[in-house]
Write a structure and sequence with these properties.
The protein has helices at about 10-25, 60-65, 80-85, 85-110, 140-160, 185-195, 215-225, 230-235, 250-260, 285-290, 295-310; strands spanning about 5, 30, 50, 70-75, 110-120, 165-170, 170-175, 200-205, 210, 215, 235-240, 245, 265-270. By secondary structure, it is an alpha/beta fold. A 7-stranded parallel sheet has the order 3-2-1-4-5-6-11, sandwiched between helices. Strands 7-10 form a two-stranded parallel ribbon. The structure holds uridine-diphosphate-N-acetylglucosamine (UD1).
């Protein structure tokens, strides 16, 4: 019987966590509704028990949680612009789905839920780096939805004693991130386009910055969060990031080096709902989990380009 459940197991982050658990020899169950997850992402995860299901259906949640000890909740519609186009859809798949999952987890006797939070909860405040005690200030429907999920985690820890751990991710990138959607993360889009010799478009002046976080760091943080003592992490929220930032213009230049692209970027209108700068303070995850990044931005980007070059 599986001990770990990964929601969004056919998505970029979910499949990466599942792969790491399987590698450790764990018994893993995954669930995905394939709205944004891909069947091809399940390749290599054959040892995982898989449920095609939707967390908006409480019965699917109950089935997924049966016998499980620890849940990694990665399922979401992860995009700011998607949420601007369809706020109700984002709410359904990020908030309702999360609440359904928590209800089912509690009923099934799950011990711990590790939740994929988002740096977008901080919003567009000028203070950097972002520290956990700052008041949230979400400016997009996506940020509101991910923050609501966090608050449900906290409430279930307080009220029912479920061990919830919220990890606020900062712009995760790496192998298996979908580069084809209108809503794809910027690095996936840029890698694909630049490797194909196509001009990428920077929205705005390119001086916006992000704390881009390579996937291996996120997987590492999740495994630490699953293993950390209850007294230290239950009911807590912390940033999970690299702890350094890079502008899009600078990122473009590094990508030129790695991809061999020798053109210029196009510049388009700034995106609605975008924030200007993002940088995490990662001391709390260091203190509570013993976390520090294991792959830096430049090395992560190099590995990512190689993956898109050879595998996608
Ligand atoms: C936000 C959240 C992040 C969340 C992610 C999910 C913040 C700080 N981060 O990321 O936690 O996981 O949504 O999607 O709010 N861009 C271009 N050209 C493109 C595509 C994007 O210039 O072709 C720009 C965007 O306008 C933005 C930056 O690149 O300024 C990053 O965009 P994106 O990768 O979509 O992520 P965020 O919106 O920062």
């Amino acid at each position: 019987m599986a001990k770990f459940l990964v929601t969004g197991a056919a998505g970029f982050i979910g499949r990466s966590i599942a792969a790491a658990l399987l590698e450790r020899g764990e018994a893993v169950r995954g669930i995905d509704n394939f709205i944004t997850g891909k069947r091809s992402n399940l390749a290599g995860l054959e040892a995982m028990e898989f449920i095609e299901g939707d967390l908006t259906d409480p019965e699917h949640c109950a089935l997924a949680c049966e016998g499980i000890e620890i849940v990694f909740h990665e399922a979401a519609l992860a995009s700011v612009p998607r949420s601007v186009a369809d706020p109700a859809g984002t709410n359904l798949h990020c908030v309702t789905a999360t609440l359904n999952l928590l209800v089912a987890a509690r009923a099934a006797g799950v011990r711990r839920v590790v939740y994929a939070g988002s740096s977008s909860a901080y919003g567009d405040t000028p203070t950097l780096p972002k520290q956990e005690e700052m008041l949230p200030n979400p400016i997009s429907p996506y940020a509101v939805a991910k923050l609501a999920g966090e608050q449900y985690m906290r409430a279930f820890a307080r009220v029912y004693g479920l061990e919830t751990v919220v990890l606020r991710y900062f712009n995760v990138f790496g192998p298996f991130q979908d580069p084809t959607s209108h809503y794809s993360g910027v690095l996936a889009v840029f890698c694909r386009r630049m490797l194909a010799g196509e001009q990428p478009t920077i929205f705005g002046d390119g001086e916006q910055s992000r704390d881009f976080t390579y996937i291996d760091n996120v997987v590492h943080g999740n495994l630490l969060a699953a293993d950390a003592p209850k007294e230290r992490v239950a009911g807590q929220m912390m940033n999970l990031a690299t702890g350094s930032r890079c502008t899009l213009n600078e990122t473009f230049r590094i990508l030129c080096e790695f991809t061999g692209y020798n053109g210029q970027p196009a510049y388009g209108a700034a995106r609605s709902g975008d924030i200007r700068d993002s940088l995490a303070d990662i001391h709390l995850a260091g203190k509570l989990l013993g976390y520090s990044p294991i792959v830096d931005f430049r090395e992560g980007l190099r590995r990512t380009v190689e993956w898109y070059r050879t595998c996608s």
